Amino acid sequence: MKIKIFSIIIFLLFLILTCNGEIHKDYPIKPVPFTKVKINDNFWLPRIETNLKVTIPFAFKKCEETGRIDNFAKAGGLMKGKFVGRRYNDSDVFKIMEGAAYSLSLYPDPELEKYMDNLISKIEAAQEDDGYLYTARTIDPENPPLGAGKERWSNLGLSHELYNVGHMYEAAVAYYMATGKNNFLKIAIKNADLIYKVFGPNKRHGYPGHQEIEIGLVKLYRVTGNEKYLKLAKFFLDERGKYKFKRKFSTSSPFSIYNQPWYMQAHKPVIEQTKAIGHAVRATYMYSGMADVAAITRDNAYINAIDRIWENVISKKLYITGGIGSRREGEAFGEDYELPNATAYNETCAAIGNVFWNHRLFLLHGDAKYIDVLERTLYNGLLSGVSLSGDRFFYPNPLESDGKYKFNQGEVTRKPWFDCACCPTNICRFLPSLPKYIYAYRDNIIYINLFIQSEANIKIKDNKVHLIQETNYPWNGMIKIIVNPEIPSDFEIKIRIPGWALGKPVPSDLYSFLNQVIEKPKLRLNTLIQPLNINKGYISLKKRWNKGDIIELILPMPIQRIIAHEKVRDDQGKIAIQRGPLVYCFEGIDNRGKVLNRFIPDNMNFKVKFHPELLGGINVLIGEHKGEKLIAIPYYAWSHRGVGEMAVWLPRKKYKRN
Ligand SMILES: [Zn+2]
After folding, report:
1. How far is the CA of 482 from the centre of ligand 1 (A)?
2. What would the 3-class secondary structure string for 455-494 be?
3. E strand residue ranges, 235-377
4. Residues 170, 331, 587, 645: which is the catalytic one?
5. Smallest Cα–Cα separation from 87: which of 4, 159, 166, 190?
6. What are phi and psi of 388, to 5 degrees?
7. What is the pTM of this model?
8. What DSSP character marks residue 253?
9. N or C: which end of the chain has fewer CB within 10 A?
10. How far is Cα 549 from Cα 495, in angstroms, rounded to an integer?
């Protein structure tokens, strides 16, 4: 009898726990997986296809040429030779593999899968018996490369041992999801089990200098259900800022900045941090990891911290292109309002990290302001990172160029590759995952966040809904959505009304439109105009939906002049131009060779004209005033027609530049 009661109590406890588990299992809002969304537009689809056909094979080839792949073969005893390259080169291979896995989910390709399996067998060979994987050490443990540390994990601030494997976990999970094969996943699990055995409370302490393993561990937790990976992610986050740094910093050391606590967001415990400081990519990966852990554990201290830091970035440290991390030195965030244009660093990876982070904040809070930032970053400071051809890249993304300063690692234009190849390989994995940012759902609510022509199959609580979105965004703002529920039923569709369409370029006072928006967005449901009741950036449509219901959204796209907060010194007296989600720039080639001596008078009239043959097909803006003419193109498309001057911000009045 006692046993029976005991069993009932245990069962009830289990029910309570799993019920809570259901609610708290992960983000309250879920993205519609990218495998359920088919993009078929003229803007993003060609880019995703170029990524698949050009960028991914190109990046793999570069990894072969630069010894990145041979490093695995050497560590596995499959070939002889020394470690070649930097200690974080393993991560580049993992990131391309993650991108290839996403592509395989969308477009099965036996040849690519074979290539991946072959690569995985090399990685398996490179893994030591206990699970350790870091070719930089395994090839010749007596002589590890600069920064790797003498012994395993002895130099975590610089070694990237944990960073590399974080990328491996992400890639392995992606490959498992794409193919159902566990050949890569088992390598990742074996490694994560070793890390768990070594690190933790009452075990070895420490944290990675470059965050990433936290995100990877949460993905491993999601796919395996094993909580120890989640705990380990939280452990690494909570280790930051716990210790007083006793190490002496030598200014003559090549690593003098790179080992500073502020640089790696370890100046304070993560929950006490209030501002974005240090290396911008590390920061956004950390905030994303904190969001992931908090989504599952409901750790409010984490959420409060990243909310505070977000306010700091959005109101003081964000470029109009969505770029972040203004300082070249340390690839870092600057002080509040420190947003120079010509020397803006704005690493492509930081833009990608900004998208990761803002997407997660949306999934936590359900507010469209995060998607406003995500969209701005996506169409501007992120997309500029890769050429239209798919095989040239920007590492930094400045907002001004004199055509001479070699801002892009020794070049004035995009380059095929970098010694530190984080940006090209991040593009590889980001683009094929783009469909997951368009739609989301929660219970019986569907969120439409991005306007990209596509079809989606969305499973909500009580129904399955097929959505067809037709649009020529970002070139115009006409959006038609056909709603096809499997059975007629009641649910809610929330449609994002972008901040820029309501007179707010960003959710802060950092930038504002000079001219007020006159024409308001319009929304029709089955031809009936709907009131513009906007809550958290969404218009909500609640009704019994039937097959073939049609939503039409019209977002007027006037040419908008933007001014910056008065404390942004570099933008004073200047304006930038935006139309729809796109920020524009002026290039010398369109403007008689020079733009840095030009200005945009307030009464200059701009017209828009679509040029199908130019730069993959773009809207060009043509401004004319008293015989003066200025031509602007979307910022993302700059630097495709030779080297020359470029500016996003131009003065409103003629003045002498110093
Ligand atoms: Zn990068």
Report:
1. 39
2. EEEEECCCCEEEEEEEECCCCCCEEEEEEEECCCEEEEEE
3. none
4. 331
5. 159
6. -60, -30
7. 0.95
8. S
9. C
10. 15
Does 151 participate in catalysis according to the annotation? no
Q: Binning pLDDT at 50, 70 and 90, where does residue 236 land?
A: very high
Give φ, ψ of 59 to 5 degrees. Answer: -70, -40
455 alpha carbon – ligand 1 mean position (Å): 32
Q: CA dist 155 to 269, 301, 455, 539, Å?
A: 20, 29, 48, 51
Catalytic residue among 422, 423, 428, 585: 422
302's CB contacts (< 8 A; 6+ apart) are: 237, 270, 271, 290, 291, 293, 294
The identity of residue 61, as a single letter, is: K
CB-based contact 577:584 (threshold 8 Å)? yes
- 331 part of the active site: yes
Distance between CA atoms of 532 and 522, rounded to whole angstroms? 8
pLDDT at 6 over 70: no
Cα angle 320-393-623, degrees, rounded to a multiple of 5: 45
With 80 as the cut, is the pLDDT of residue 94 above it?
A: yes
Amino acid 516: pLDDT: 77
Q: Which 3-state string (H, E, C) describes 536-588?
A: CCEEEEEEEECCCEEEEEECCCCEEEEEECCCCHHHCCEEEEEECCEEEEEEH
**CA neighbor of 446 nearest in space, from 37, 31, 36:** 31
How far is ligand 1, taken at its centre, from the CA of residue 142, in Å? 30
Give the pLDDT confidence score for residue 13 in this predicted structure.
46
> What is the DSSP code string of 334-346?
-STT---STT---
Can you name the residues that pair with 456 across neighbouring β-strands? 37, 467
* Span from the CA of 330 to the centroid of ligand 1 (angstroms): 12
Answer positive or negative: Cα dihedral of 587, 592, 594, 595: negative
Tell me the pLDDT tens digit for each residue of 305-326.
Answer: 999 999 999 999 999 999 999 9
- Alpha carbons 475 and 631: distance in angstroms, whole number: 17
Please answer whether residues 164 and 192 qualify as being in contact, where contact means their C-beta atoms are separated by less than 8 angstroms.
Answer: no
Bond preceding residue 110 cis, omega within 30 of 0: no
Q: Which of 289, 281, 426, 423 is nearest to 354 (CA)?
A: 281
Using the mean position of ligand 1's atoms as its centre, give its distance from the Cα of residue 347 in Å. Answer: 6
Q: How far is the CA of 251 from the centre of ligand 1 (A)?
A: 25
d(CA 83, ligand 1 centre) in Å: 22
Task: Tell me how far apart the alpha carbons of residues 385 and 393 are, in angstroms, rounded to a whole number.
Answer: 5
Instruction: For residue range 270-298, list pLDDT tens digits in order.
Output: 999 999 999 999 999 999 999 999 999 99
| All residues at 6 or more sequence positions from 643 whose CB lies less than 8 Å from its CB, including other chains | 403, 412, 413
Q: How far is the CA of 5 from the centre of ligand 1 (A)?
A: 58
Distance from the Cα of residue 103 to its chain's centroid: 17
Mean pLDDT calculated for residue range 123-145:
98
Specify the DSSP element, H or E, that contains 238.
helix 227-239
At residue 632, the 3 state secondary structure works out as: strand
CA of 348 to the centre of ligand 1 (A): 6
